[in-house]
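Hi all, posting the design record for the shared folder.

TITLE: backbone redesign
STEP: 1 of 1
STRUCTURE INPUT:
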């Protein structure tokens, strides 16, 4: 079996669902269930013996050690993190605690477990760390896309904390020989995406008749990948990645934020037209920019394609259509994630942004 951390969050839950469906191998899922963790994402696994859930913190060394001893996983995949840039600007401490200290404690527990394995199991063990393209910083309009050798230039507390965790993972390979793999992926979208992030926030606000808040001029560029393609990339790296290597993961799909929001509005206009016949795009509102806002991210995913034969299955057009359909088909999920805590966050982040 494998141990996954953060498997009740957006990408982790998609990974666990696909893992059980496609590999048949059991998975232990360690998740603290912060505001971003939602067991409802995994409700289809309720009667599934191959999914074992444990609530807890990756920074709890004793808990991680006991899970490793009890379940003897052949691999650990680390998704657990604080993941939202705007929250990292308002309250950075949790990012340092989980992404830096938590990853450190997790690495320590895994190192002790791995060190005690018999030689063949030890040789086959893997620690896969899931990271982001944001560690590379911001690109100018004509710069080439990020390759794995691009220098680290993190600009937000979130990306700085992820960069620190990547460095720790690298150091545990270099110093202790821990068999690690790191993936640095671009922006994901798809089912179970928490509506604090751009695409699900726009869907939820559009349907509720609320403003669609565009930070700054809306011309910031992100490189979007359908979440299930990220999950297939992680499975492939786990299976065949070279030890100690990092793999950039992306869908060759750079788009300015404003184009993304217009695409979302266009799909909603077709699938769930507004009662007054107007486009959801009329709800677009320009608001104060994010401090230190990175202008452009772009991933060069040629290494993972060349070495491991991985390519995304979805185009942006097919992935975003599936995503919008999922949100329209799951109104209960959408309603339940907008709890009191979610409303508090929306007030904190948007009330101070002048339109
Ligand atoms: P998310 O915020 O939706 O989920 C994070 C999960 O981790 C939640 O279930 C949360 O409860 C759990 N968690 C948080 N702190 C924890 C702790 N201390 N111990 C145990 N569990 C804890 O995030 P996501 O978007 O699913 O991202 C998952 C990973 O992928 C993160 O490491 C993130 O940096 C990385 N990543 C995300 C994207 C993206 O576009 N979302 C892109 C590239 C990389
Ligand atoms: P986000 O989904 O928070 O991901 P990240 O900051 O990790 O790339 O934001 C994606 C882009 O959308 C980013 O450039 C910020 C912008 N954005 C808005 O314009 N308005 C919003 O309300 C949000 C949440 C994001």
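Okay, here is what came back for every position:
SEQUENCE:
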């Amino acid at each position: 079996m494998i141990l996954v951390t953060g498997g009740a969050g957006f990408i982790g839950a998609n990974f666990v669902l696909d893992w059980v469906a496609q590999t048949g191998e059991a998975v232990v899922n360690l998740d603290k269930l912060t505001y971003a963790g939602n067991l409802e994402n995994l409700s289809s696994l309720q009667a599934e013996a191959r999914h074992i859930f444990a609530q807890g913190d990756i920074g709890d060394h004793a808990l991680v050690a006991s899970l490793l001893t009890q379940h003897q996983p052949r691999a650990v995949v680390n998704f657990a993190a604080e993941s939202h840039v705007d929250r990292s600007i308002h309250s950075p401490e949790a990012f340092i605690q989980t992404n830096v200290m938590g990853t450190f404690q997790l690495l320590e527990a895994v190192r002790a477990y791995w060190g005690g394995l018999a030689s063949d199991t030890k040789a086959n063990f893997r620690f896969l760390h899931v990271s982001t393209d944001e560690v590379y910083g911001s690109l100018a309009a004509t710069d080439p896309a990020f390759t794995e050798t691009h220098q680290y230039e993190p600009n937000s507390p979130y990306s700085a904390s992820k960069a620190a965790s990547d460095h720790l993972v690298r150091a545990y390979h270099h110093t202790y020989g821990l068999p690690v793999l790191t993936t640095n992926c671009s922006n994901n979208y798809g089912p179970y995406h928490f509506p604090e992030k751009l695409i699900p926030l726009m869907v939820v606000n559009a349907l509720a008749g609320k403003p669609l808040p565009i930070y700054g001029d809306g011309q910031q560029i992100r490189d979007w990948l359908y979440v299930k393609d990220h999950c297939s990339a992680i499975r492939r790296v786990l299976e065949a990645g070279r030890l100690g290597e990092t793999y950039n993961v992306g869908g060759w799909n750079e788009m300015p934020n404003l184009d993304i929001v217009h695409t979302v509005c266009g799909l909603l206009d077709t699938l769930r037209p507004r009662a007054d016949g107007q486009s959801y795009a009329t709800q677009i509102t320009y608001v104060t920019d994010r401090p230190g806002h990175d202008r452009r991210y772009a991933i060069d995913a040629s290494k993972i394609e060349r070495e491991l034969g991985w390519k995304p299955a979805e185009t942006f057009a097919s992935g975003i259509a599936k995503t919008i359909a999922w949100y329209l088909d799951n109104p209960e999920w959408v309603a339940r994630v907008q709890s009191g805590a979610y409303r508090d966050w929306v007030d904190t982040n948007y009330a101070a942004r002048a339109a």
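COMMENT: The radius of gyration is 20 Å.
Let me know if anyone wants the other runs.
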